[in-house]
Amino acid sequence: MFERKHQQIAPTKVFIRRMVGYFGIVILLVSSALFMGVAGYHWLGGLDWIDSLLNASMILGGMGPVNTLTSPAAKVFASGYALFSGLLFIAVMAIVFAPILHRMLHTFHVKD
User: Fold this and answer.
1) Domain-embedded: residue 50
2) How close are the terminal C-alpha atoms of the chain, in Å?
């Protein structure tokens, strides 16, 4: 996927295309996670769709919940979703920065 140590650095056009692909993966992951959160808050938390979207967005963004949840199932879902969101944030940062970090480190290995 990336260049090997003995290969030249990829041209800027290839790097930009690679970054666009990685951002596409990130957008797909975040929208899937948001959909899961909205569905969980709606069906388990008993919130309407717009409140479910607000709660899922706030948790996914690291801000915290907005509405109070009353059922035990909704509380368990919310705690699991919050943990999942924290791990997703780490994964998203790794996906976004992997090509950038690789390109930066690869410059040290390229022979002049």
Assistant:
1) yes
2) 23
